[in-house]
Amino acid sequence: MAENQAPDVKLPDPVEMSRAMTRIAEQSQRLVSEFLSRQAAEGVGAKSPDPMGVGHAFLEMTTRMMADPAKLMQAQMTLWQDYLTLWQRTTQRMFGQDAQPVIAPSKEDRRFKDSAWDENTLFDFIKQSYLLSARWMQSTVNQVDGLDDHTAKKVDFYTRQFVDAMAPSNFVMTNPEVLRKTIETGGENLVKGLEHLLTDLERGKGELRISMTDYDAFQLGKNIAVTPGKVVFETPLMQLLQYTPTTPDVNKRPLMIVPPWINKYYILDLREKNSFIKWAVDQGHTVFVLSWVNPDETLAAKSFEDYMLEGPLAALGAIEKATGERDVNAIGYCLGGTLLASTLAYMAVKKDDRIKSATFFTTMLDFTEAGELSIFIDEEQLTFIEGQMAEQGYLDGAKMATTFNMLRANDLIWSFVVNNYLLGKDPFPFDLLYWNGDSTRMPAAMHSFYLRNMYQKNLLVQPGAVSLAGVPIDLTKVKTPTLFLSAREDHIAPWKSTYMGAQQFRGPVKFVLGASGHIAGVVNPPAANKYCYWTSDKLPKSSDAWLEGAKQTEGSWWPEWNNWVSQYADGKVPARQPGDGALKVLDDAPGSYAKVKND
Fold it and tell me: Residue 574, Cβ neighbours under 10 Å: how many?
């Protein structure tokens, strides 16, 4: 191509473009009509314009910032000096000279992975200008004196949300990859992206629910949640799954898994190669898993204690009927772990010792340092959430999913905005993201109790402050051997918070810290040979002291856990098949509860 020759530009097919725009117009008209109808039915303006209290937090921050104009002036001068340096170095690059960047994105920041962000002087300037402004904005709000801790965290969090949203990678004209795609396709990528946007709005009934994967690519029991097993028992809140053995002999003591009910149990059974459930079965465990119901308004009054009574306690009786074994080893994951710990405290009062060991996956018991989720827990926001639940009888699972996605907005929101809407690409089929999108509702009574008593008031670690089924519980009465597995990069259950919870029990406690986050840190099969974990024989008061003395081991922590739990296996017995005992088979795994979708 000659130096002054324009690049080839594809012209769009006028017939196809016309058809696409007609589809878009029809779809948009329908969405707008439905949105206006809902607004009229619900009553416009009936709800608080700022239910999260963000405006109040920023007003307080601004007031205190303006009270110290010298500090604000110094911050502005620092930004101006950074920009002056950037202009100088950009000019040097324009004249063919080498110039070191003033600021560079972190290695984990995938927004600027396209080579043009570094090689093209203009896009390099845009990138660095954004990074300097982002750093200035976040450091400025973080240095405001006089804010209470909760307001400071809220301001920092929502400032970061704004900064992430305004990244140049999120806009057509300032993203080199999108510009290149637009020229190559004659704008077809943007038309396709608009169709994706409207489809997601339609799927969310007027609210944007970004597609993270191809939801038609997976079907429970067919290519996800496929470990062979049976439903052998159920209550209004859960179905109990018993898995088919793969070894001639099994541990005498069964394994009961209590997953969280914020999402569905099959995070532990995605595919054969990364299924913790299948791996545990292959190690000789008779595995039982609670598959929680996806509740509707008819279960609005179900409480936290109902989840205990109709969940793990009911499962213990069912497991004894199925196997003849009174005792079990138990696992609780996240909120399921909080329930398991509460159940152990309840059983301690009742002198019930049927759980011989307990493992906690990324579980918080002490909510003193609850991480960024605590930003959403104050009186104003809780009142708003309770008002929503009072209308519906439950909290919509999509609202919970959005909250979790905001904790990692660049990875779980903006990367899909660029891929789906700007580049016009179809989402890639990904089992983990399919599970992430298969959210569940929260019954009103249970969720209000959990948010207020655990997150807001932190009553679980106060002896006798929480009562379940009329019994005041005390975690310090639990003497069951326990293993806590936490994840170093966990944004939902920060590992230092889970470590504080591990200090509550009075039995032998083993703490294991895995690499990665809330999901990948748990779903880390040995065959993948990924990440690492830390262990220590000691449990000092300080989490930092624990980590300083801990030993690092490469690979998965699963074998470490199996070695630990094997000491509570109580020997071996011939393998048990679902339906062999007093409980008959009701259905094939994954069962009907797991297949219930949100409307």
Answer: 9
DSSP three-state, residue 109: coil
Alpha-carbon gap, residue 592 to 293, rounded angstroms? 9
Q: Does the domain made of 229-419+430-595 have the CATH classification 2.160.10.10?
A: no
DSSP assignment of 498-549:
HHHHHTS--S-EEEEEESS-TTTTTS--GGG---EEEE-S---S-HHHHHHT
Identify the helix (H) or strand (E) that includes residue 207: none
Report the distance separating Cα 357 and Cα 329, nearest Å: 5
Is 334 a residue of the active site?
yes
Structure tokens at 438: 């298969």
Q: What pLDDT, on the 0 to 100 scale, is given for residue 531?
A: 95
Set 210, 334, 445, 492: catalytic member: 334
> According to the 3-state scheme, what is the secondary structure of 577-597?
CCCCCCCCCCEECCCCHHHCC
The pLDDT value recorded for residue 3 is 41
Smallest CA-to-CA distance from 376 within 47, 19, 57, 36 is with 57
The residue extents of the domains of the chain are 52-169, 229-419+430-595
Secondary structure (DSSP) of 362-373: S--S--TT-GGG
Q: Which residues pair with 96 in a beta bridge?
A: none
Q: What is the pLDDT of residue 39?
A: 47
Q: Per-block average pLDDT, block size 10, for the chain (599 residues)? A: 46 58 57 54 50 68 74 82 92 91 93 95 93 90 84 87 92 93 89 88 82 93 96 98 98 98 95 96 98 96 97 98 98 98 98 98 95 85 90 87 83 91 93 92 95 95 97 97 97 95 96 96 94 96 96 97 98 96 96 90
Cα–Cα distance for residue pair 171/169, rounded to 1 Å: 6
In contact, 441 and 598? CB cutoff 8 Å: yes
